């Protein structure tokens, strides 16, 4: 039995592989120009009597997710007046969420193509270990910006290479992404433990990096980690919503065979998507080193679950073809606000994970009801 080879797509938009391939691909992925798909346009549901722009906004996943976040903030503000949402709380919530937001941006692309990446926390650890080992042998805590620049390239390159390798296994070897990334989870963590002997070595983070980036603030107000996270979200949010790369991502997640027939090199694109999340895991590794000053080898076993939770809370579909970076941004802050609020009102720590799990299940359930209401078939 033979399989139809993928049709290559020229990198130059002016010279598509066939006269109509690029145009057909753009047409197949047209819904990606908005976080709201045609089924969500609001004109076929309870908002059909409203003006089109308002109906579209109210039907968007991001609007509903933002509503959940607003309700949480309102509840904790009433339950603990003057104690919740102080300037300190806001700063801490944003700083703690920054690394998960960077990872979540990459996971958004992966989930939209109907993939999954369980290795993201281990890739972060491996990237941090290799970058930290370079720093350790080139000045340690006393190293300057030259060492920081090289260690950053090492972290980014490690994540990029690992992600691309997993992408090749998914796209070319046809191994299910769940299996590939589950294996990658163990392999990356194992390599990190082999390199370090299972211990977090000292002096793996530059004091300059920690002082200027980890604890530094733009204009003395906004933590640099938050600036980096927001910048990453903005850049890749625009890429997802307004570029051909983003349209291809949605098209593949919606219908990979239709995308292939329209001229999209599906396999090549999948490799790029998995390479992207690896690259952002490398960036997350440097942010972690900057803030915590250590590789924290044993501290990232649940990063994948936290990031996937944020992406799903943000409205992305695990079946592919649906999601947005804006939704992920909101989704990242729901668990962060929930955890902080429960601490403020004195709820026992063990109940926090229970509450986050309940919110996740309810969010998905409500979204399913909403979708079924719009499309009974």
From TrEMBL:
<keyword id="KW-1133">Transmembrane helix</keyword>
<feature type="transmembrane region" description="Helical">
    <location>
        <begin position="270"/>
        <end position="292"/>
    </location>
</feature>
<keyword id="KW-0997">Cell inner membrane</keyword>
<keyword id="KW-0812">Transmembrane</keyword>
<dbReference type="InterPro" id="IPR001851">
    <property type="entry name" value="ABC_transp_permease"/>
</dbReference>
<feature type="region of interest" description="Disordered">
    <location>
        <begin position="1"/>
        <end position="44"/>
    </location>
</feature>
<feature type="transmembrane region" description="Helical">
    <location>
        <begin position="142"/>
        <end position="165"/>
    </location>
</feature>
<dbReference type="Pfam" id="PF02653">
    <property type="entry name" value="BPD_transp_2"/>
</dbReference>
<protein>
    <submittedName>
        <fullName>ABC transporter permease</fullName>
    </submittedName>
</protein>
<feature type="transmembrane region" description="Helical">
    <location>
        <begin position="177"/>
        <end position="198"/>
    </location>
</feature>
<keyword id="KW-0813">Transport</keyword>
<keyword id="KW-0472">Membrane</keyword>
<feature type="compositionally biased region" description="Polar residues">
    <location>
        <begin position="1"/>
        <end position="12"/>
    </location>
</feature>
<feature type="transmembrane region" description="Helical">
    <location>
        <begin position="64"/>
        <end position="85"/>
    </location>
</feature>
<feature type="transmembrane region" description="Helical">
    <location>
        <begin position="325"/>
        <end position="344"/>
    </location>
</feature>
<feature type="compositionally biased region" description="Low complexity">
    <location>
        <begin position="13"/>
        <end position="40"/>
    </location>
</feature>
<feature type="transmembrane region" description="Helical">
    <location>
        <begin position="218"/>
        <end position="241"/>
    </location>
</feature>
<keyword id="KW-1003">Cell membrane</keyword>
<feature type="transmembrane region" description="Helical">
    <location>
        <begin position="97"/>
        <end position="130"/>
    </location>
</feature>
